[in-house]
Design brief:
Elements: H1 3-14, H2 21-28, H3 32-44, E1 48-52, E2 56-61, H4 68-75, E3 84-91, H5 94-103, E4 110-117, E5 136-142, H6 152-170, E6 175-177, E7 181-184, E8 187-199, E9 202-212, H7 232-236, H8 242-261, H9 265-275, E10 282-287, E11 290-299, E12 305-309, E13 314-317, E14 321-324
Parallel strand pairs: 3-4
Antiparallel strand pairs: 1-2, 4-5, 5-9, 6-7, 7-8, 8-9, 10-11, 10-14, 11-12, 12-13
Helix pairs in contact: 1-4, 2-3, 4-8, 6-8, 6-9
The structure holds biotin.
Length: about 325
């Protein structure tokens, strides 16, 4: 934990009561002058910290920027996810940054956020719109003890974590579209790009890239996407706190990652199925050059979609582009 993380954690815990400079200095083992210097630095980053003789330091407001120390301080202790958080002002794609970390042998659980991506990408080679400070664009490095074919379980765990975090932050009930889209009133608000490196029967690492359109306004989306995409701000008519949402997602995912690694995917699959609008509907799925039509029946134990085709066969689909037919 850095000094800033410790200061912000102490200020958060103290709330309106505040915390005295002497107490901070004793707890952190640094001089009061050093505490003052760090507080000044946090103020220049936009943190509203008041100093008063009665209350000491009080945290009154936080800026709408992603700050690694602040995210760590709000996150608290997690088992795996978010033990290491890095924030970039701008990057090509956070999945690329995490891939480099993975090759360099960084431990699982590292999370890379970018305020903006210049080459954000979605599934099937699509571009992912990632304007500065409007969304959450981040990737997580995982090294799960899973067979490569079971990695869909992680995408499903991530979609469920996103679902819960969005619902608790906004009060809206999103829908999950198999396997990785979060929709609100039928429009896409978030997506997940899972990339992996694997040997034939063992995963080396997984990169879970998540994009959430948090505070975009309609003009931030290219015209061709406006019919299909939305943001939490558009849907709630309110700016949303990005850092708070990020922390909720990481906390939810930390719990579910643990369950997936412990072979307890079933409970998660039930929750996912409950909110998945794809199940029970007639769908058309584009898998490479092939288009398959049928009814999405359920989820297989490894996260694959079980599709009853128009010819009555049950097919297992592990990836593809789904259109729900009305
Ligand atoms: C999709 O729905 O097609 C997946 C979108 C995933 C976007 C995120 S944003 C963070 C990470 N970096 C990327 O380049 N893509 C993912």
């Amino acid at each position: 934990m850095t000094i800033d993380t410790k200061i912000l954690s102490a200020l958060r815990a103290a709330g309106r009561n505040g915390v005295a400079g002497t107490e901070l200095s004793q707890r952190l083992g640094i001089s009061r002058a050093a505490i003052w210097a760090r507080i000044e630095e946090l103020r220049t980053l936009g943190y509203g910290i008041e100093a008063s003789p009665h209350h000491g330091y009080q945290l009154l407001s936080v800026p709408d920027v992603l700050h690694a120390d602040d995210l760590l301080s709000s996150l608290g202790r997690t088992k795996v996810i978010g033990r290491d958080i890095r924030v970039f002002g701008e990057t090509t794609s956070t999945n690329d940054v995490v891939e480099k970390l993975a090759r360099d042998g960084v431990k699982e659980g590292a999370v890379v956020f970018a305020e903006a991506q210049t080459k954000g990408r979605g599934r099937l080679g699509r571009k992912w719109v990632s304007p500065p400070r409007k969304g959450l664009w981040f990737s997580i490095l995982l090294r799960p003890p899973l067979h490569p074919l079971a990695v869909t379980q992680l995408t499903i765990a991530a979609a469920t974590a996103l679902f819960r975090a969005v619902r608790s932050q906004t009060g809206l009930t999103p829908e999950i579209k198999w396997p990785n889209d979060i929709l609100i009133r039928g429009k896409k608000t978030a997506g997940i790009l899972t990339e992996l490196s694997a040997e034939p029967d063992k995963v080396k690492y997984v990169i879970l890239g998540m994009g959430i359109s948090v505070n975009l306004v309609t003009g931030d989306f290219p015209p061709e996407l406006r019919r299909l995409a939305t943001s939490l701000r558009i849907e709630t008519s309110q700016r949303q706190n990005r850092a708070e949402l990020a922390v909720r997602i990481l906390q939810e995912l930390d719990r579910d990652y643990d369950r997936v690694c412990a072979g307890q995917f079933e409970a998660l699959a039930d929750e996912w199925e409950e909110h998945c609008t794809t199940i029970g509907h007639r769908v058309a799925i584009q898998v490479g050059g092939r288009r398959i039509q049928g009814t999405a029946e359920s989820l297989d134990t490894d996260g694959a979609l079980l599709l009853r085709t128009q010819h009555g066969h049950l097919e297992r689909i592990i990836g593809g582009d789904v259109t729900v037919e009305k």
